[in-house]
Amino acid sequence: MTGDLQSWVGRSRRVADEMATPLVRRMAALTDRTDVALDRGAPVPNHWLSILFDDAAPQSALGPDGHPAKGDFLPPVPLPRRMLGGRRLTYHAAPRVGDALERETAIAAITPKVGRSGAMIFVMLRHTITGPQGLVAVEEQDIAYLEAKRNAPAPPEKPAPVPAAEWRDAWAPDPVMLFRFSALAFNGHRIHYDADYTRDVEGYPGLVVNGSVSTLFLFEALLRRHPGAQIRSYEARTMQPVFCNRPAFLCGEAPDAEGQRALWVEKEDGAMAIRIRTRIG
Predict the structure, then answer these.
(1) Residue 242 scores a pLDDT above 70
(2) Domain containing 166 — which CATH number?
(3) What is the dihedral of CA 141, 138, 281, 264, to 10 degrees?
(4) I need a surface site. Which of 1, 39, 228, 275 has the fewest CB within 10 A?
(5) pLDDT average, residue stretch 237-261
């Protein structure tokens, strides 16, 4: 079956969107930002692009998990559970309020693997975002498809070593935060708002914090310490899910000799859930 999926590599599509004033205003409210101008043409934090370019699939075309059904643009991967495994992104220009933007997405690779919880298939997407200024951003995104939950728990994962933090902020993601972000991004994935589905079907103990939410609040914590700076590039890897209504910490370390720094979400048990290498400027 995975051999059949390789025929999907190279497929592409384009989606147009706009960095509209209401979206910028709502993102500022979600992140408690009072320093972002809403005037047309004003620069917007680079990383706020994460709320644009939703699939906007018709209701009749959604799968049982709230995502668009596979087999339209995304390949018909024969595994039911889906999560974001990692991403690599470089910004070339700051989006501006009112900018009309376009994203071209190509299926770059499809890779089967075996992990702690069984068979997995990774679909790598490559996004190229352009606007009135030309190239805005290029992103590679790894979507992981997993087997259905099993009664036996997955073998424990060796904890990732946690660096020494230069700063560490307490963070308590709650259902309202997840709902507001999902509404902004038009993300219908039920693991972020439907507790019964998340527990009974996907097998998680609670609502799962969207990886984009964790990334957003890590960047906001960093930029509070560097007013006026922008995220220039980053690489993110998801290692464990972060669950709603459980204590966590947003952490960061000092930049290395090349100007890159590590950011991470640390769970209450000390485990690292998501790790980011980023550069600001």
Answers:
(1) yes
(2) 3.10.129.10
(3) 0
(4) 228
(5) 94
Domain that holds residue 46: 2-280
Distance CA 5, CA 11 (A): 11
Q: How many CA atoms lie within 13 A of 241 on its CB side?
A: 19
pLDDT tens digits for range 177-214: 999 999 999 999 999 999 999 999 999 999 999 999 99
Contact 120, 180 (CB under 8 A): no
Residue 37 vs residues 32, 34, 128, 197, 217: alpha-carbon distances, Å: 13, 8, 26, 39, 19
261-267 vs 100-115, strand pairing mode? unpaired
Q: How far apart are CA 85 and CA 121, in angstroms?
A: 11
What's the total number of domains in the chain?
A: 1
Q: Is the pLDDT of residue 101 over 90?
A: yes
- Residue 189, both tokens: 């994935």
Exposed/middle/buried for 170, CB within 10 Å: 0-12, 13-18, 19+? exposed
Through-space distance between the first and last CA atoms of the chain, rounded to whole angstroms: 45
Q: Give me Rg for the CA atoms of the chain.
A: 19
Residue 256: is its pLDDT beyond 50?
Answer: yes
d(CA 197, CA 23): 28
> Which of 117, 123, 126 lies closest to 145 in space, CA to CA?
123
- Tell me if residue 69 falls in helix, strand or coil: coil
Please state, in angstroms and rounded to a whole number, the distance separating the CA atoms of residues 135 and 92: 6
**What is the arithmetic mean of pLDDT over 271-276?**
95
